[in-house]
Structures are given as structure tokens and as C-alpha cells.
From TrEMBL:
The keyword Isomerase applies. Residues 76-162 form the PPIase FKBP-type domain. Gene3D superfamilies: 3.10.50.40. Belongs to the FKBP-type PPIase family. GO terms for molecular function: peptidyl-prolyl cis-trans isomerase activity. It comes from Niastella soli. It catalyses: [protein]-peptidylproline (omega=180) = [protein]-peptidylproline (omega=0). Its EC number is 5.2.1.8. The keyword Phosphoprotein does not apply. This is Peptidyl-prolyl cis-trans isomerase.
């Protein structure tokens, strides 16, 4: 019995370590609920967006330009991108060129960005569970810039990664 418990413990530890990256970020395997996936699909339909593909986690994406080069960004990768983030009502909440570690971003970005390579351009349509969920996101003055349970739309160009 003792050997069985020890064996199971080793298996669990090995399996959990295998999924975690060397930088401390790990794949969360979060899937948006069906109602959120449907809300994104309804948004796409009402805006006549017919080329968006669905990822198994529940967000949708359009690849406008794949990009070139070898490799794709991973969780530990430092990415530099230019993006515009907007709500489904069209309000832009952020627009920037920035660099960050991909694993530190929202789940929809973490899972979506690897679809393109350096120089690639895409749009992401992210349900709330893969973004900020039921949390309001406020600016420095306390004004809500992303209301809770918002669908987020990102227009992204991946400038580089390393």
C-alpha cells in the first residue's frame, strides 16, 4: 500500500511539473462556458464577421497575416506587439505598442498569440472567462474602463518575440 501511495505521489508531482514552464507560468486549460462562447458567436454574426475560427477554449480568432520566421511565442516568451483593445460596443479601452512576458497576460491572449509568427497580424474575440471575468478593470483614477463580464476584441500585430 505504501508503494502505491508513493507511486501515485510521484506520478502527480511529475505530471504537474511537466505542465509548468521554467518561468513559473503554466497552461491553465480554462474553457469559456457555452453561454459566453455563444455571446461571442452572436457578436461575430451580428457584425458579419465570417472568417473567425473558434479555438477549443472558446475564443475566436482571425489571422489577417500569419507572419514569417520559425517558432511561435510560448508562455515564457517576451513578446513585443502593437494592439488595440476594444469592447464589443466599439469603445477602445487601450491602444499601445508594448512588451511583456506572454504568460503574464490574459488567458485569451496567452492561447491566441501563438497562432501567428513574427510580423503576424490577427484579431482575437475573447469571452469574459478568458479575459477579466467578473472583475471591473479601472484606470488610475478609479474609472471603469473594462466592465465586468465584457467580451474583448484585440487587433494585434506581433512585432517580435524572444
Amino acid at each position: 500500500m505504501r508503494n502505491l501511495v508513493w507511486g501515485l505521489l510521484c506520478f502527480v508531482l511529475f505530471y504537474s511539473c511537466k505542465k509548468e514552464s521554467g518561468c513559473g507560468y503554466s497552461d491553465q486549460n480554462i474553457v469559456a462556458p457555452v453561454n459566453e462562447q455563444q455571446a461571442v458567436k452572436d457578436y461575430l454574426t451580428s457584425n458579419n464577421i465570417q472568417t473567425a475560427l473558434k479555438d477549443s477554449s472558446g475564443f475566436y480568432y482571425e489571422i489577417l497575416k500569419v507572419g514569417d520566421g520559425n517558432g511561435v511565442a510560448g508562455l515564457c516568451t517576451q513578446v513585443e506587439l502593437t494592439y488595440t483593445g476594444q469592447l464589443s460596443n466599439g469603445n477602445v479601452f487601450d491602444q499601445s505598442t508594448t512588451a511583456f512576458t506572454l504568460g503574464s497576460s490574459i488567458e485569451g491572449m496567452r492561447k491566441g498569440l501563438p497562432y501567428i509568427k513574427k510580423g503576424g497580424h490577427m484579431k482575437l474575440y475573447i469571452p469574459p472567462t478568458l479575459a477579466y471575468g467578473s472583475n471591473d478593470i479601472k484606470d488610475n483614477s478609479g474609472k471603469v474602463i473594462i466592465p465586468a463580464n465584457s467580451i474583448l476584441i484585440f487587433d494585434i500585430t506581433l512585432n517580435s518575440f524572444y
